[in-house]
Amino acid sequence: MQEILPYAVNALLYGVLALYAWRIRWSPAAGVPASAAPSSTFEHYAVLVPLALHAVLTARAMFAPDGLHLGVGNAVSAILFLTVLIYWAGNFFYRLEGLQSLVLPVAAAASLMPAVLPSVRPLPNTELLVFKVHLLIAMLSYSLFTIASLHVLLMALLERRLHDGSLPRALQGLPPLLTMETLLFRIIWAGFILLTATLATGVLYSEELFGRAARFNHKTVFGVLSWIIFAVLLGGRRVYGWRGRVAVRWTLSGFLMLVLAYIGSKFVLEVILGRG
After folding, report:
1. Do 155 and 106 belong to one domain?
2. Is 147 helix (H, G, I), strand (E, B) or coil?
3. Does the pTM exceed 0.85?
4. Among candidates 142, 145, 103, which has minimal Cα distance to 15?
């Protein structure tokens, strides 16, 4: 197992910031209205500290002298690094503070993964340009859909609390539900475009490496199922105005298929079957 201390420090930094965000925005003991909550500037820039450490540790684990190591631990860590990076950059344009208490705990757990589940051997055929493009697009797609899934959970919580008539301070400071819904579908559209490009470059990679457009396996099946689910969701949104609980169910279902397409299969092969 790799030296775990720097990974534990990284997870701790994420955890401390998540706890800080929870205490000033969610904790009922604080008793301060949303309008009087502390500025989010400190939270925003403080994230750069664990984010930079996360980048260094993930890069060190992935890019070894013998090649690219992309086991389940490194893959999850890289995806959550990009998720936090996109969330951090998105905060310049949208009010996403409410997501911090959801994104950072997940990132804390993910940052430990390279140490807990180290990659044993490098991936083959990673020198091909089409593979590098495919990998980058796939990681970005995963990250956007991770944000979309957390965002839709936050929306579901907001809608439920609105019906109950009791809003925590963090939810009081969020944009209106319709504004959050518009942002959700922008994220899903971006992720869907990247997912389409992921499948297309996957076909090119398979064609170049194996001489056929695609191999029929669980990764292909779940990847295509995820694409179909998000295509139906976006079509339903445009034609029928789907929103609310329908959007929650379809978003989470599509994300689950995406997780099963790569992360789930890697976990089974490397951890359960020991074929890492």
Report:
1. no
2. helix
3. yes
4. 103
